[in-house]
Write a structure and sequence with these properties.
Elements: H1 2-7, H2 17-48, H3 52-67, E1 71-73, E2 77-80, E3 86-95, E4 104-115, E5 124-141, H4 152-156, E6 170-173, E7 175-187, E8 192-204, E9 213-221, E10 224-232, H5 235-239, E11 244-252, E12 255-265, E13 270-279, H6 283-289, E14 300-309, E15 312-322, E16 325-336, E17 339-352, H7 380-383, E18 386-398, E19 404-415, E20 418-428, E21 431-440, E22 447-459, H8 460-466, E23 473-475, E24 477-488, H9 491-496, E25 499-506, E26 509-511, H10 521-530, E27 540-552, E28 555-557, E29 562-566, E30 569-578, E31 583-592, E32 602-608
């Protein structure tokens, strides 16, 4: 029959030849299909006799070998036979570190595994989908800074070197879905607790040949909603601490953070090659997100390229923009064991301090006990933790009010616990100021302070703005020389030991409006004395101001060394100011000029102590 079909092709001999060929094709296809289906049926029959706990025990042994801790399946292990077999594990737990606050590091209500059938013939377990229902992970840091995810101690505590688990198949994972998960991070050393709740998370391969996972995550961080999406490398790369590519975008509390590149050692967060773009939006909102109370600040954006090379991490270029302020530069971090050396350089056309609310400025505010200078120990030991060098330059600096600085330059260094700012310099409206500071905290407990400030032709309004009290003042060219030395473990001790000299000479200036708002009743009274007609003629015209006072053991001596003159009165001060005890003992004399009247003649004493 086959021979006739093959060699006698005359159509008239076999009028039903086309129908016959179609029949044989059906038989052929059916035969091939049977050949393909039979192994599948055989595999399904074999799977029906498989005890899922056998492979479960293999997984448990592999985890024990890798981490030194126990993985337990406390509930049932179910196997559902189909062309895509499914295994369900109930009540799964993973042991915690011995010192942790609870016995389980991970709790899982249910795990559902959908397994690809064909790869089983090759000895490979390919999990096409893994669904984790209500997982709960507890990460803890003890008071010594040790994390419960560090398995080194658990592995080393084992009496013998673990052997390879026999018969364990290779494992590949293609999709992971989390439902109603929770992660708790508790840092007992820092006293911080953070909770991450995942309403839904999905990680999957877009196609079979893809080496990256598509990521979609939605949840809350400390009850604040966030989203994360993009692509990242396989989870095996993280577990193996191997190169892990990322291209992720996170959105949280109005902020958008994008990270793209490669993390060479993801478990150590080292060997980075990343591009970072963080558009924070409102820093005050970001502060509330991390539990910090910040005033309303302008929008903030950071763009950087981060690269590691051996023990050196470079952030270059680095661009920072906050409101109208804009700086660019680079940062270099060198690691030598536990010690770090940081080198930074930033420069920009504008630094706008007028956008910073006054409550964040550096004017001293009383402590809870009513004192200006705290008796709490200063953290000098922190100065010895790192070495650093930095330089900041800005073409223009806008101050609160209407003053501005030009050509700002700040150069800082920190080595062996000794901080130096040298130089700090700027110009403003033809004036020039330079300062340097040396704070030696190398002992870790006490600091030695040296401060020098030299100014020439500085407008008085700019000085008030720098001090945190912007005033509507014009003119007032000022010459000043300040030298100060001190030592102590607290700010109060530094002030009590202060010694040095201050000389200030201010020329003619005009204060518009009611002005001279320094936030204290004593200065308001002084303003009333300086301008007796303040209620009807609020503007104040200064002729000059001179201060030439020594400082000894925290006591400023004003005797015959301070005087001020306006177009209406002359004023002088005598007495002392005790910085250490925060006490005033001053006598202020004022004399009206001709035509003002005797109402401006006065003698008053100011005496106040804590």
């Amino acid at each position: 029959m086959i021979q006739l079909m093959a060699f006698d092709t005359a159509p008239k001999t076999f009028p039903n030849a086309r129908k016959t060929r179609r029949t044989y094709l059906k038989w052929f296809a059916g035969g091939i299909g049977t050949i393909l289906v039979l192994p599948v049926l055989a595999a399904l029959i074999a799977l029906s006799s498989v005890d899922p706990r056998k492979y479960g025990d293999m997984a448990i042994a592999a985890v024990k070998q890798s981490t030194g801790r126990d993985l337990k399946v406390n509930g049932a292990m179910d196997l559902r036979i189909s062309l895509a077999p499914e295994v369900t594990l109930h009540d799964v737990s993973f042991a915690n570190a011995p010192w942790a606050t609870r016995s389980e590091m991970i709790r899982l209500r249910r795990a559902e595994l959908k397994i690809a059938l064909a790869p089983l013939f090759l000895g490979e377990v390919r999990i096409s989908r893994l669904t984790l229902v209500q997982p709960e992970v507890l990460l803890e840091v003890d008071e010594n800074g040790r994390g419960n995810w560090d398995f080194k101690e658990d592995r080393e505590s084992r009496p013998t070197k673990p052997k390879r688990v026999a018969g364990a198949p290779s494992l590949k994972l293609h999709e992971v879905t989390l439902e109603n998960g929770r992660l708790i991070y508790h840092d007992w050393k820092a006293g911080k607790r953070t909770q991450l709740a995942l309403a839904h998370a999905n990680l999957h391969r877009p196609h079979a040949l893809s080496r990256r996972l598509q990521v979609v995550i939605a949840g809350t961080l400390d009850r604040k909603p966030f989203q994360l999406d993009g692509t990242m490398g396989p989870l095996q790369a993280i577990l193996g601490n191997n190169s892990w590519p990322v291209d992720l975008t996170g959105r949280i509390n109005g902020a958008i953070v994008k990270v793209k590149g490669d993390i060479g050692r993801p478990l150590d967060l080292e060997d980075l090659d990343l591009v970072v773009d963080a558009d924070i939006g409102s820093l005050s909102d970001a502060g509330r997100f991390v539990g910090a109370s910040l005033p309303k600040l302008p929008s903030f954006r950071l763009q950087a390229e981060v690269r590691d090379s051996g023990n050196v991490r470079e952030i270059d270029p680095l661009r920072v923009k906050m409101g109208e302020s804009e700086l660019a530069g680079d940062v270099r971090i060198e690691r030598e064991g536990k010690r770090r050396k940081i080198t930074a350089k930033l420069a920009g056309p504008l630094l706008d301090l007028s956008e910073v609310p006054r409550e964040t400025e550096t004017a001293p505010h009383p402590q809870g006990d009513g004192r200006v200078f705290s008796r709490e120990p200063l953290p000098f030991q922190m100065l010895g933790n790192i070495d650093a060098e930095g330089e900041l330059t800005a073409e223009k600096v806008l101050l609160p009010g209407r003053d501005r600085l030009e050509a700002l330059r700040v150069k800082a260094s920190l080595h062996g616990g000794r901080l130096r700012l040298d130089p700090v310099g700027f110009s403003t409206r033809g004036g020039q100021m330079n300062a340097d500071l040396d704070l030696d905290g190398s002992s870790g407990k006490r600091g030695q302070l040296r401060l020098s400030v030299v100014g020439s032709g500085i407008p008085a309004g700019a000085l008030f703005s720098l001090a945190g009290f912007p005033q509507p003042m014009s003119g007032g060219r000022t010459e000043l020389r300040i030298n100060a030395f001190g030592s102590g473990a607290t700010m109060q001790q530094l002030m009590a030991s202060l010694r040095g000299h201050a000389w200030i000479n201010m020329g003619p200036a005009r204060l518009e409006g009611r002005g001279l708002d320094l936030g204290a009743d004593v200065f308001t009274e002084m303003a009333n004395v300086l301008n007796p007609t303040r209620q009807t003629d609020p503007a104040m015209q200064f002729e000059c101001f001179v201060l030439n006072v020594p400082v000894r053991n925290g006591i400023v001596n004003f005797d015959g060394r301070a005087g001020l003159e306006t177009t209406k009165v002359r004023m002088s001060a005598e007495g002392t100011v005790d910085l250490g005890n925060e006490a005033l003992d001053l006598a202020v004399r004022s004399k009206a000029k001709e035509g003002i009247g005797s109402r401006a003649d006065s003698y008053g004493e100011v005496s106040r102590s804590r």
